[in-house]
Write a structure and sequence with these properties.
CATH architecture: 3-Layer(aba) Sandwich
Radius of gyration: 13 Å
Distance between the termini: 27 Å
Shape: globular
CATH class: Alpha Beta
CATH topology: Glutaredoxin
Number of helices: 4
Number of domains: 1
Largest sheet: 4 strands, mixed
Structural class: alpha+beta
CATH superfamily: Glutaredoxin
Length: 100
């Protein structure tokens, strides 16, 4: 995995999904994220971070429940929420951060 700070330091929205393989709600988010990516294409980037494989990164963001979603732009966290979201909610949220 490339450096996390480099991945989120983009001029477009970067959605980070902190998840775990054993997490039922995380599995529910997979098709939502796929649909969001299909709808928004290259205007966003989605990064999935397994909290069990990247424990120190999860700890640095104080991830206490999964899924936890974050939106970064230009290296700054603009939004954060834990729990499952619908495709329409997530798309609408990301579109707010598309504009310069």
């Amino acid at each position: 995995m490339e450096n996390f700070n480099e991945m989120v330091n983009q001029p477009f929205p970067v959605l980070v999904d902190f998840y775990a393989e054993w997490c039922g709600p995380c599995r529910m988010m997979k098709p939502v994220l796929e649909e969001v990516k299909k709808m928004m294409g290259d205007s966003i980037r989605i990064i999935k971070i397994d909290v069990d494989k990247h424990e120190s990164l999860a700890n640095s963001f104080q991830i206490q429940s999964v899924p936890t979603l974050m939106i970064f732009k230009n290296g700054k966290m603009l939004w954060r929420q834990s729990g499952v979201m619908r495709t329409s909610q997530l798309t609408q949220l990301l579109q707010q951060y598309e504009k310069p």
